[in-house]
Amino acid sequence: MIMVKAILLNKDAGYFENGGVNVMAFDDIYPEGHQSGVSIILHGNRVATNGDVRFEQTPGQWQPVPKQGERILDDEANTITTSLSYPDKDRHLRGFNPMVYPDFEFGYTVTVKGTGESVTVTVDLSAPVPERFLGKLCFNLELFPGALFGKPWMMDDAVGLFPMQPNGKPLPLPPNHPHTGDFALPDARGNLHDLTSGAYNPMTADDLIATPYAAGKIFVSRPDCPYNRLTVESKGADIKLYDGRMNHNNGWFVLSSEIPAGKTKNAVEWVITPNAVLDWKYEPVVQTSQVGYHPLQPKTAIIELDKTEIKREIPTLYKITANGSEKAYATAGEEWGRFLRYDYIRFDFSHIRDAGLYQIKYGASESSVFIISEDVYDHGVWQPVLEYFLPVQMCHMRVSEKYRVWHGLCHIDDAQMAPTDYNHIDGYRQGLSTLCDYQPGDFIGGLDAGGWHDAGDFDLRVESQAGEAYILSLIYEVFGLDHDATAICQQTKTVEIHQPDGKNDLLQQIEHGALCVVYALRAVGRHFRGIIERNLRQYVHLGDSMAMTDGIKGNSDDRWLFTEDNPRRELTTAAQLAAVARALWGFNDTLGNEALRFAREIFDAIDPEAIGEESGWNGRNAVTNAKIHAAAELLLSTKDGKYKDYLIKHTDLIAGNIAHNHMGNLGWVIARAEDAINNEGFSAAIRKSLPILSARLTEQSGETPYGIPYRPHIWGAGWGIQRAGFEYYYLHTHYPDIFPPDMVYDSLNFVLGCHPGPDSVSFASGVGAKSAAVGYGLNRADWSYIPGGVVSGTALIRPDLPELLTFPYLWQQVEYVMGGGSSHYMFLVLAVIKMLKGKDA
């Protein structure tokens, strides 16, 4: 292989390039998610990231991270220079995870300079490293493990293979270390100690340093493969190869050099040489729905190309028969242009309606095999959400599937009141008061029923619980779904998958969500934030949720309930409960009536005009929008004129919100309530604003080749796109002359495989020819998935790399959640089915 001559800074792109090699420097800002610092892309794949100064060789998501300052790109010097400092104490206040910062404040710069085929990374400190931090403060570079298992590495004269599991043992601990002695191991329950106690604590786990696999001056990853070869040479301290999974299950392999004593200038100097293959080009990717298409729906494949590719092939659709395949259609693709780092063409084959198996080929690239059939969505598409995902996520239940137990009866010791004036983890904060009669540590009875675990975190945040029950209620309301494949018994707290019990599974799931929210409101007497594990040892729990607590009420392992003063969230909960009540009537009238009572009480109790701040998530505007949402749902549930009057009173605000698509967009809500409002002036104002919204959505949809508003950020955009399609369905069905149906189809196709990047997979696990078969759920430690769970999806590696890695611990790419992830997807599939039946008629 002949090498390209030099790696050069592309100032417009914001990173270094050398053919198929890219080196980013501090463009990303998410070190906890393995997405920051110096990052290296080799021939389309991110192989290394988080090149930065850290206080540990194998840091986890709760370890200190720096505060990033100025970033200077100098194309003449061929450098990117970034100023950073420790500590970033503001991050603790604004973030979701508490961090304990060492008592060493300093600044530093990281300079990345292109030199020939390499980049030289140097670190300059504002002060030398104090003796107490020698051996701890280091420069790290993390290597993505998912692509390295079983692959070779070299360190000077030593060689090895990257292992599937972390091997070895921690280095000996110094005398009087807090992890020595009686507390070297967790107790029989696996934790149950304060965050600062001696048992295993994810915040201090990096005090236990694993024995490095090797140490030396020159390290080579994947010497066997020119497309993945990466060489790192240290001009100073040794490079050590660590396995970050020894400390944290979600760790990566780490190259680390300790910063030596007394040095500030060139405290670290690494020369990194990513191997560049001459004339490499990104292979075309043919993106289609991994499930297929109904004969009557629009059908467009998206073909993703290297931005330097000039040659164009003819996309060809083949029909697969018992005797092989035959050409069904071929035509030149429609040039769309550049999006992120790739060029795109579109191949429209909507006129193909014959049922059967199909595949699209573009040169040497090909799509998965997909189906065209009138019953394409009738089996195994939306059903896994209701048959697998929702049952598996059910809290306070034992969930079985024939021989398999997904998890035992869990959390029946819920819950105690959380401490006051306390910033916990994952967004849970308790103010100076509990806001109710319960005091910190008091046991709160009646909370051991209902709810779904949120992804792998096992907590029950109110917006996830009420939000999930709300979407399921709208599914029942719009589509009248009646499906029975699961036995659910609230009395025995048991669930048996694939065992019908004569009851509608959808209504049983709505009931389960309502039980969690209504029982908590009843027990506490006010709005609550949620229920969550009390310490990090429990929070990072992998495996059966039954093992998280001992099931005995009132002791030191019970989960905590948090309250909050959040009028926007409270009113949103009221809106959701009002819709849940409608679904429950006729199935569980008592629970439905209580849900409605709480919704009405919340509506009456909160006056947005009393809120001083106008903007912000809890400002007057946002709270007013939430109250409008609640009024619409309460009107639909009660027909009470006071809710109609409230909506009419805010006609101008609602119309403006719809026209400008402001935070808390109300268009889809009002579409459902307009007939019940039945006011000519109101309708005239709303209908005047709708074309403005439609034009805005059309403009945003035109920004991507996928036909949907899509502006990728760090997190995968799948959930947001599903939600947009869900909301848009109501706009289309109520105002079809203003909102054409395309965005509903395109949103579903995006989730089912038509999305950026080389992995054209269905975000819905277990659905379609290829799907996200490794998800961030309760079984993520087994590199497995939950059928019907919908992952967050393709993320953005700044500034322009779409990425969906096969790795179970990247929550920003493969997490499952409640409150919209799978239920919005289920709604979309059912919406497409209903739209197509109407089209057929």
Helix content: 25-40%
Quickly give the structural class: alpha+beta
Q: Please, what is the average pLDDT?
A: 93
Shape: globular
What can be said about the biggest beta sheet?
9 strands, antiparallel
Strand order of the largest sheet: 1-2-3-4-5-10-17-16-13
Which percent range describes the beta-strand content? 15-25%
| Spatial separation of the terminal alpha carbons | 60 Å
Radius of gyration: 28 Å
Low-confidence segments, given as residue ranges, are 178-198
Number of distinct helices: 16
* β-strand number: 40
Report on the structure:
The protein has about 850 residues and is of the alpha+beta class. About 25% of the residues lie in helices and about 25% in strands. The protein contains 16 helices and 40 strands. The chain has a 9-stranded antiparallel β-sheet with strand order 1-2-3-4-5-10-17-16-13, with no helix packed on it. Strands 6-7-8-9-18-15-14-11-12 form a 9-stranded antiparallel β-sheet, with no helix packed on it. Helix 10 (about 650-660) packs parallel to helix 12 and helix 13 (about 720-735) packs parallel to helix 16. It is globular and about 75 Å long.
